[in-house]
Amino acid sequence: QICLSLVKLLFYLAHSPLGSIALLDFQPRQFVMVDGNLKVTDMDDASTEELSCREDNDCTLDFPTRSFPLKCSVAGKCEGINEKKNLFNAYRYFFTYLLPHSAPPALRPLLSDILNATGDLRYGINETLRAFEKVLHLYKSGLYLQKRPLLLKDYISLKGFRTVEGEGHKCWPSYSHLGCLLSIHSAEEAAAICNSQLHCHSFIVTQHRTWTGRPLASFQSSWTDLVPDTNAVVYIKRSASSGERL
After folding, report:
1. Secondary structure letter of residue 6 according to DSSP
2. Which CATH number do you get for residue 72?
3. Residue-wise pLDDT tens digits, 103-160
4. Could you tell me the residue range of the domain that residue 165 belongs to?
5. Which residues does the annotation mark as catalytic?
6. Which residues of the chain form beta strands (DSSP E)?
7. Boundary of a domain, candidates 121, 144, 167
8. What is the crossing angle of helices 125-141 and 2-14, to 10°?
């Protein structure tokens, strides 16, 4: 969400009515999330000036660890230098820390492609935004899910109930540091996740949703009491349950 919002912001800056705008003091502390969207807190160090040049050799975009040769346009300006400066700063301050860690396994190669392409400045902001929107579409639609055996049939579902959350079962990446709370596309995906966790024996699908509209599921590893909850459905592995317990 943070990276996509940042890319949309940089897309606007690259195509603004004032021309391409560079953020000269590009640091994470210069941004804040407002209602799910990334905002710039300080525009004092923004500039629409692009480096003047006479030849291509005048157009080198330098960073502490990388340098990129750019073209000198017929107008005597280094082509796209403001856009590329913003994009590489987004890569080194945001993408490298946020993109590789929290996506479903099937989407990680696509995010790795974005990471590598922006890190080498092979993508401009237009291509980067299209790549992010493709990943978002796959994520929201569930099209990233590979065909696999149906696992939900191995679970007993109890509508209107949830389990009392136990302690000790944690996972990464979790929306809660107290347990294992993950976003899912469907209960079928939740069953696959539970089956992949060594100690998981049940999960609860709630009506709470993420910014993409995906429901949240809480995964449990120990027996706890069932309590009424009209907004939840608990799924318990048949192998972990017994008629007496239920």
Report:
1. H
2. 1.10.510
3. 888 899 999 999 999 999 999 999 999 999 999 999 999 999 877 788 999 999 999 9
4. 152-242
5. 25
6. 22-23, 31-34, 37-40, 46-47, 60-62, 67-69, 155-163, 180-183, 202-209, 215-220, 226-237
7. 144
8. 150
